[in-house]
Amino acid sequence: MASIPSTLTAGLAFLIASAPLAAAPQPAEAPPTALQQTAHVQPTSVPESPGAPRVSYMYELSPEMRGDLYMARKQYVAAIGAYQHAQLTKPVVWTKIGVAYHHLFAMDEALKAYKMALSLDSHNADALNNMGAVYHAKREYRQASKFYKKALKYNPRSATIYCNLGTTYFADHKYKDAEKAYNHAFAIDPNAFNHDNNSAIDEGSTKEERIAQNYYLARAFARAGQRDQALFYLRKAFDEGFRDRKKLQAEQDFAMLRTTIEFKQLVAEQKLD
């Protein structure tokens, strides 16, 4: 997961090597995710009288709300322009600017914005989490894990940050630590890894990392009795190149899953060793 988020919106890269961002606003109709509490855009009311002048509600919004609306539309350059006219003494505004740059893959600019947020609030878990995602994108995994751990000091109940920490550990080939971090995320929020999450940024990862992550998630969902999610991630592991028939048959977490028609059909489609 490197994905960015926590109390506002945020993660390293989950979504298999992608990072959810804290304080990244989403459209009001988007389903809530475990990654963040999104900054919802609330358009102002429009006069009901037919004779009333029609004024674009965009001009009735504050600069920060206009930025949120642009972010929801994925118009990141416009969002940055709007946020720069908002209250720059608010850490959340700098975090949102960082998220916009992050979506543009302008990592150095994102980092500067997150540091500005931290200069205003050194305990800002969202900014710390997002800095971890930047370092993950730069493949500086020790630095990334350092910032995730610091973020967890100020927001210890964030499933998203644990997702991101686990994803960084996977990227750093620390698989036992990765599973521990993912286990914490599952314990906090069983829906933390739902594949319908759309709040992540693809950071890229190796084939080995993606197999390890997908296979682990298939096991975790199977253990939790979430069959559809388990099959989803198992298929992703197959698609990435998992071919170990013996490991699959010996896996205790798949004991119940192996009895289902869906599992048998999925395995029958593969050319396993």
Helicity level, as a percent range?
40-55%
Strand numbers in spatial order across the main sheet? 1-2
Low-confidence parts? 1-18, 26-55
CATH superfamily of the largest domain: Tetratricopeptide repeat domain
CATH class of the largest domain: Mainly Alpha
CATH architecture of the largest domain: Alpha Horseshoe
Radius of gyration: 20 Å
Structural class: mainly alpha
Characterization of the model:
By secondary structure, this protein is mostly helical. It has 2 domains: 1-42 and 57-204, Serine Threonine Protein Phosphatase 5, Tetratricopeptide repeat, CATH 1.25.40; 206-273, no CATH class. The chain contains 13 helices and 2 strands, in the order αβααααααααβαααα. The protein has helices spanning 14-17, 63-72, 76-83, 91-103, 107-120, 125-137, 141-154, 159-171, 175-188, 207-223, 227-240, 245-250, 261-268, and strands spanning 18-20, 200-202. α6 (125-137) packs antiparallel against α7.
Secondary structure layout:
Layout: H1 14-17, E1 18-20, H2 63-72, H3 76-83, H4 91-103, H5 107-120, H6 125-137, H7 141-154, H8 159-171, H9 175-188, E2 200-202, H10 207-223, H11 227-240, H12 245-250, H13 261-268
Helix pairs in contact: 2-3, 3-4, 4-5, 4-6, 5-6, 6-7, 6-8, 7-8, 8-9, 10-11
